[in-house]
Amino acid sequence: MPIKIPDQLPASDILRQERIFIMSESRATTQMIRPLKVLILNLMPKKIETETQFLRLLSNSPLQVDIELLRIDDRPSKNTPEEHLNNFYRQFDMVKNRNFDGLIITGAPLGLVQFEDVAYWEHLQTVMEWANNHVTSSLYVCWAAQAGLKLLYDLPKRTRKEKLSGVYQHDVINEFHPIVRGFDDSFLAPHSRYADFSPDYLSEHTDLDLLATSADAGVYLASTKDKRHVFVTGHPEYDAQTLHTEYSRDLAEGMDPAIPLNYYPNDNPDNKPIASWRSHGHLLFANWLNYCVYQQTPYDLEHFSLDKFTRDD
After folding, report:
1. What are phi and psi of 212, to 5 degrees?
2. Most exposed: 45, 228, 247, 260, by fewest CB within 10 Å?
């Protein structure tokens, strides 16, 4: 089944060229089906690139998904045309009285910034608290995972001395959990962050189900018991070239970055990188849509209630 996105969204042409089944708003009006309504809060600077990456992963499901894009505030963007934001993104006031099946909060380049120094920190807290009463399941990616742990568990910001950048091996540690259903015992996924997610620390200070960890990267995937909050500390949505773009940017800015680990063939930046995590990323998002959203959400979103999540699964 397709994802439903606005007719003129730039991602439409890219995804069509990749033979991904998308449905325009005009065609969707003739479909006699209740699609899942998923809201994406895009915190990344290059919003068109990021929205395309997430839409690509959300498309690989038998479920019809109705996508809406949310911006965190109305400050001008340095990397995205204002016309694009005005045409395709909602302000929070436009959605706060509605319910959604799913919410995705993307990463943000704020790894070395304290939470209280983030310009939109209070607004982000408002959105996350709103989601507790209006969203069936929320997916927090990379920096958003750190922010979500602060809000839900009051965990302080933990920062690595060196940036974690590259493609890392992970092991499934809870093989019967539905979110990792179909995963290989060991799989690859990219990371690009300063945040530290120690398995021992999260086990000691939260009641999260830890689902996949890495000896080098720490916790990669975790969930609350009711699957309403899912944390992904890496970037399964990244394109093959994304880490290369970040590495080249940091080089140009004189930051002397380390070469992303296990990314370039023979660890040589002159070699074209290969995406070794694509199948994992699609399966992760398909499982989240199926087991955390579709099988949990009410048919009538107007009847969303927290009572249904108090039962033992």
Report:
1. -155, 135
2. 45
| Catalytic residue of the set 51, 237, 246, 280 | 237
C-alpha 230/C-alpha 169 separation (Å) is: 20
User: Do 294 and 102 form a contact (C-beta atoms < 8 A)?
Assistant: no
Predicted TM-score (pTM) of this structure: 0.88
Domain range for 260: 240-274
Number of compact structural domains in the chain: 2
Residue 164 domain flag: no
- Residue 65 — φ and ψ, nearest 5°? -120, 125
Q: Does residue 63 sit in the same domain as residue 129?
A: yes
Asked whether residue 163 is marked as a ligand-binding residue, the answer is yes
Residue 163 resides in a domain: no
Residues 265 and 176 placed together within one structural domain of the fold: no
Q: Does 197 lie in the same domain as 73?
A: yes
In which region does residue 207 sit, left (phi positive, over 0), alpha (psi from -120 to 50) or beta (all else)? alpha
Question: Residue 190's beta-bridge partner residues?
Answer: 167
Cα–Cα distance between 310 and 76 in angstroms, integer? Answer: 41
- Both 180 and 300 in one domain: the answer is yes
Q: Is residue 228 part of a domain?
A: yes
Q: Mean pLDDT in runs of 10 for the chain (313 residues)?
A: 67 72 54 81 96 94 91 92 95 96 97 95 97 97 97 95 96 95 97 97 97 98 97 98 96 94 96 96 96 88 67 39
Catalytic choice (177, 235, 246, 280): 235
Distances in Å between the alpha carbon of 109 and those of 42, 43, 143, 217? 12, 9, 8, 18
Residue 192 assigned to a binding site: yes
Decide if 237 is catalytic: yes
Catalytic residue among 142, 191, 280, 292: 142
Distance CA 126, CA 266 (A): 45
Q: Show the beta-strand stretches assigned E in the chain.
A: 3-5, 22-24, 36-41, 65-70, 89-90, 100-105, 135-141, 159-172, 186-195, 209-214, 218-223, 229-232
Residue 166 lies inside a defined structural domain of this protein: no
